[in-house]
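On clarity, I found the account of how folds are encoded harder to follow than it need be. Since the whole study asks how a given chain folds, the encoding of that fold should be made plain. For illustration, here is how one protein appears when written out as sequence plus C-alpha cells:
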Amino acid sequence: MNKQKLREIKLLELLKSRGRLDVATVTTELVISEATARRLFAKLEKECKLLRIHGGIQAAPEFSNDYSFRFSAAQNLDEKELIGKKAAAMVKSGSRLFMDAGTTVLKMAEALSLRLQTGEIKNITVITNSLSFLTNLAEHCDVILLGGKLRAGRHDVCGSLTRQNLKNFHCDQVFFGIDAISMNGELMTTDTETAEINALFIEQSKESYILSDSTKFNKTSLLTFGNLNNITGLITDKSISKTQIKAFEKLGTKVITMCVKV
C-alpha cells in the first residue's frame, strides 16, 4: 500500500473517531505540510468521504441512511448549475410550480430568479417545502411555503401538515431532486417523510421532472417512492452512459443531458 493511501486511511480513521479536525491537527498527526493536507482534503471531499469546513474538515454523512443539505450542496457544482439552468429555461410565464428542497433544485431557483428579474417570464407561482431559496425567489414571484415540521439537516419542512397542505394544490410542473435511481428506474430517497412528499409532488402535478447529476444513477437508497415510468423527464449531465439512457427512456421518460462546462 502506497504512502498516499495510508494517509487517507489514517485521516479517515481520525475523522471517524473525532468527528471534526482542524488543519494543524492533521498536519501534526500525519506529519505532512499544510498544502499536502489541503490537497488530501479536496480529494476525499470529491469522493464524498468528508466535508471541508472553515479551518478544517468534518465527517461526511453516510449517504445510504442520512442526508446533509450542506454536504450535498458542495458536490458536483458545475453539473448542478447547468441542470438547474436547463430546468429554469423550461418554465413559462403564468406557470404554477412545485419545487422541492433538493440542492440541484436550489440552482434552478437561482436561475429562475434571474429570468424573472430580467423579465423573460412573469406571473410565476412556486409552492415548496424548501427553506433554502425562499427570500431570493419571493422578491420576484409568489412563493407559497408548505407548513410543517422543520428539518434543519435538509433545509425543509415535512410531516402530516406538509402533506395535507400539499394536497390542496395542483401544479403545471414539479421539479425535484433524487437520492438514487436504480437501473430499472426505481426512484429512491433516504427517509419516509421525503418519500411521501415526493410521491405527492408527482401525483399533484401535470408534468414531473427529476433534476440529478449522473452520480445518482444505478444506485440504491433506503426507500422507493416511485418509478421513472411515472416521470415526464430526467435532466442530467453528459456523463450518463448510453446504456442508462436507453434503459431509462424505455420506461417512457425523456432524458435531457447537459454538457458540463470546462
Remarks:
- Residues 3-18 form the longest helix (16 residues).
- The domain at 3-60 is CATH 1.10.10.10 (Arc Repressor Mutant, subunit A).
- Confidence is low (pLDDT under 50) at residues 62-68.
